[in-house]
Write a structure and sequence with these properties.
With 321 residues, this protein is of the alpha/beta class. It contains 11 helices and 8 strands. An 8-stranded mixed β-sheet has the order 1-2-4-3-5-6-7-8, sandwiched between helices. Helix 4 crosses helix 6. The chain is globular and about 60 Å long.
Length: 321
């Protein structure tokens, strides 16, 4: 039986149509160099100071044992010092584990930080396929260790570090929470997972429904997971620190906010992860945005559903404090 996909929200569909046929949902390994170059151009245009609202600086910090140093982009509110240590938004960028820099997707975390009076620390992790698992998640964990250990230097509170990420970044934040729990490392105060990439198997109803539609589909996901895991992708021996949906135990994790579009490939794995967090006695807030495709709020920020999604994330961060 043909699986009929849910419709896109009309405002979001109009934004997607404006991109034209070249903005398809697929990704091949051959596409990666050009997509990386385009992403670097976009990232270079970002002003992380927000016209002087933040003091922004790149910091070189120790990577995992035996690995190169990491680059962290640290953005701290400018102006007179605020009494007391500030919360931290520890940002992990998206890009299917094969694309992106620590400036990618930083616009929304900077908006949250301006509203909340928070420090943003954005980590640049090594990318697949040149650096397969566990390089990306180990880099993200090393960046968390540095951030928690140097919180006083940043004027920040190590007990109020929230891991935030979209797509692959959301999946890495979920993996980070698992790794920190299992290693006894710094426990994030929360995990904000936007359309997270959690499951390497890519065989959910939503993955099948949305094949060939939107901005990212199961074929793109298969490319990304193969880049990270090689022949192990989809097989029986995948680490939960690579694909958090594989974790058997989701107890003892930080409070989570998860959101996803109803018309995107990651819908069902996100809903399932939230359900398993609840089943393990955890705290989770889940939003499924009607008619949303992957990354809809970045592509159509003025759409009504995009405004609702962004408001819900900020509201959760306010309540988490």
């Amino acid at each position: 039986m043909t699986e009929v996909p849910p419709p896109f929200d009309p405002e979001l569909a109009a934004a997607l149509e404006q991109l034209g046929p070249d903005a398809g949902p697929g990704l091949s390994l051959e596409d990666i160099p050009a997509r990386r170059a385009a992403g670097r151009e976009l990232a270079a245009a970002l002003d992380p100071t927000r016209s002087g609202a933040f003091d922004a600086a790149e910091r070189r910090v120790p990577g995992p044992p035996g690995a190169p140093d990491l680059s962290l982009l640290v953005c701290r509110p400018a102006g007179p010092p605020v009494p007391g240590p500030l919360p931290v938004l520890y940002h992990v960028h998206g890009g299917g584990l094969v694309l992106g820099t620590n400036r990618a997707g930083l616009e929304e975390p900077l908006t949250w930080a301006a509203e909340l009076g928070a420090v943003v620390v954005s980590v640049e992790y090594r990318l697949a396929p040149e650096h397969p698992h566990p390089a990306p998640v180990e880099d993200v964990y090393a960046g968390l260790l540095w951030t928690a250990g140097h919180a006083a230097e940043l004027g920040a509170d190590p007990a109020r570090i929230v891991a935030v990420g979209a797509s692959a970044g959301g999946g890495l934040c979920a993996a980070l929470a698992l790794l920190a729990r299992d290693r006894g490392g710094p426990r994030p105060a929360g995990q904000l997972l936007m359309s997270p990439m959690l499951d390497d198997r890519g065989d959910s109803p939503s993955a099948r429904q949305l094949a060939g539609l939107g901005t990212w589909d199961r074929s793109a996901g298969a490319t990304a997971w193969r880049a990270l895991l090689g022949e192990r992708a989809g097989g029986p021996d995948v680490s939960p620190y690579a694909a958090p949906a594989r974790a058997r135990d989701l107890s003892g994790l930080p409070p989570a906010f998860l959101d996803v579009g109803s018309a995107e490939t990651f819908r069902d794995e996100t809903v399932a992860y939230a359900s398993r967090l609840w089943a393990a006695g955890g705290v989770a807030e889940l939003h499924v945005w009607p008619g949303g495709y992957h990354g809809f709020d970045a592509l159509a920020p003025d759409a009504a559903v995009s405004r609702s999604a962004r408001a819900a994330r900020l509201d959760w961060l306010r309540r988490l404090r």
